[in-house]
Amino acid sequence: MSDDTTAGGNGAQPPNRPPMVISAQYVRDLSFESPHAPSIFTEMRQPPEISVNVDVQAAALNEEQGAYEVRLKVNAEGKVGDKTAFITELDYGAVVMINAPAEQVSPLLLIEAPRHLFPFARNVLADVTRDGGFPPVVLQPLDFVDLFRRRVQAMQQARQDQQQSAGDPPQGTA
Length: 174
Known about the structure:
The protein is of the alpha+beta class. The chain has three helices and four strands, in the order βαβββαα.
């Protein structure tokens, strides 16, 4: 009797392998700019107003091996009045190994992996803004499930729009 616990019992994958493993984490790109330094420091009476944009991307490195790259891209801009105090852009990546059914791959890559990467990316962002002479930008936890749902809804809407425009007769003037 076999104790093979892999899906389908074919023995192709090692048993007890976790569904997701983060093999490596790294800063792909990091940029910090303070275009109005040093005068901005004499003009600041309170911490800068901060705007933040976060994007999650995933791409296959080697699908046969279940290897993917997941990237958190964080852009933060601080303003003092109408002047830009600082701009920082962080591209934080990871090599993620996936051992899961196909329908679970996207949620693992776009929800779970970013959830694990986020604290590290947040730390890099806080350090670089603090080292740039400003109060550290400490991002609040993000709802990666909501980001994933919005991405899926946007893709579905785009697909529907494309189908409707392909099915419509050409419009012209008569």
